[in-house]
Amino acid sequence: MRAAATPPLASGILTDVGRQRRVNQDAALALDLPHGGLYAVADGMGGHAAGELAANLALDTLSQHYLDGRGPPAERLAEAVQAANLAVLRHAVGEYVGMGTTLMALLVDRGAGIIAHVGDSRAYLLREGELHRLTDDHSWVAEQVRLGNLTEEEARHHQWRSVVSNGLGGEERVRLELFGLPLRAGDRLLLCSDGLSSVVADRTLLDLLLRPQAPEQAARALVNAANDAGGPDNITAVVVDVLRDQRLPHYTLPVRQGDGPLYVDVLLSAQRGSSPLTYVLLILAYFTLLGVMLIPEQRGVIALLGAALLVGVVVAQRVTRARLGRPPPRPAPIRAAYPEGEPQEARNSSG
C-alpha cells in the first residue's frame, strides 16, 4: 500500500482576550486552499462592539472575496483586502462610527507566500534558526523612526505609540503593502496582533518558535507568554509550518516597495502591467529572426547566439525573482545566541 503524502502545510490558530480586557476585538483566519492556504489576523479598533465587528467582518469578507475572485492570486488577495476595507467602511455608521481594524494576511500558494499588510499587526519568518520580521508597523511612531525623528528607544515609550496610521475602514481606497517570498521546507511563519508583539520580546518569540512542537502548541505557548507578561491587550497568534518543498507558482511574485503602503489601485496597476522581461524577449526574438533573414549564410551562428541570449535573460530573471523573494534584510534577524541587552522595538496597541 502506498504511504500517504506529507501535507505541505500545518497551522495553529489561537486568539485570547488577555488579562486586562473584557472583550476580544481580535480575530483570526485559517482557510485551507487547493494549493496552500489563506491565513490572517485582524485587530479591531473603535470601542468594544465596533472593534469586534470590524475584525470579524474584515476576515469574513477577505476569505469570501478571495474564494469568489478570479485572476492571479496576488491580485485576488489585494482585491479581497480592498473588499474587506469597503465592508468595514460601509458598516461604520451610527454606534459604529470610527471603527476600523488592522489586517495581516498570508496567502500560501504552492511554494510561495504572499503578504498583504495594513496596520501594526506583524508577520515573522523563522528560517534556519533566525527570526526575520517581515513587516514594518504602519504607526505614527514607526514612521517617525523611519524618518529619523525618533530613536527605537524613544518610540518604545512615546505617548503616541498606540496611534495606528493605517487601517481598514479609514477611506475608500485601502493602502497596503503587498509582497511575496519563496518558502521552503522547515520554514515557520507567525502572524500576530500587537497584543503579542508589543509585549513579548523578539528573542523570546524566537525561543518559543524554535521549540519542536506542533503549530497549535506553539500558538498556545505564545499566547501564554503574552498573558504571563501581563496580557494588557487581546492576543492572537497564527503559526504556519511549511512541511515540504513545492515548486514556485508560474507568476512573478510581487516585490516589496520601499515607500511603505500604497493605494490598492496603484499596486494592482503595477501588478497587472506587462513584464519588462516580455519586451526583452520579444526584441531578442525579433532581431534574431531579422538577422537570419538578412544574413542567411550566418543563420546558424545568429540563431545560436539569439537562443543563448534568450536563455540568459530567462535565467537572470529567475535568479532575480528568487533574490527578491528572500526575507527583507531589515530589521536584523534574531538568532539563537543573543548579545547582551534588551531588544529595542516599538510598542503599538491598536485596540
UniProtKB/TrEMBL annotation:
<keyword id="KW-0812">Transmembrane</keyword>
<feature type="domain" description="PPM-type phosphatase">
    <location>
        <begin position="10"/>
        <end position="242"/>
    </location>
</feature>
<keyword id="KW-1133">Transmembrane helix</keyword>
<dbReference type="InterPro" id="IPR036457">
    <property type="entry name" value="PPM-type-like_dom_sf"/>
</dbReference>
<dbReference type="Pfam" id="PF13672">
    <property type="entry name" value="PP2C_2"/>
</dbReference>
<dbReference type="GO" id="GO:0004722">
    <property type="term" value="F:protein serine/threonine phosphatase activity"/>
</dbReference>
<dbReference type="InterPro" id="IPR001932">
    <property type="entry name" value="PPM-type_phosphatase-like_dom"/>
</dbReference>
<keyword id="KW-0472">Membrane</keyword>
<feature type="transmembrane region" description="Helical">
    <location>
        <begin position="277"/>
        <end position="295"/>
    </location>
</feature>
<feature type="transmembrane region" description="Helical">
    <location>
        <begin position="301"/>
        <end position="320"/>
    </location>
</feature>
<dbReference type="InterPro" id="IPR015655">
    <property type="entry name" value="PP2C"/>
</dbReference>
<feature type="region of interest" description="Disordered">
    <location>
        <begin position="326"/>
        <end position="351"/>
    </location>
</feature>
<protein>
    <submittedName>
        <fullName>Protein phosphatase</fullName>
        <ecNumber>3.1.3.16</ecNumber>
    </submittedName>
</protein>
<keyword id="KW-0378">Hydrolase</keyword>
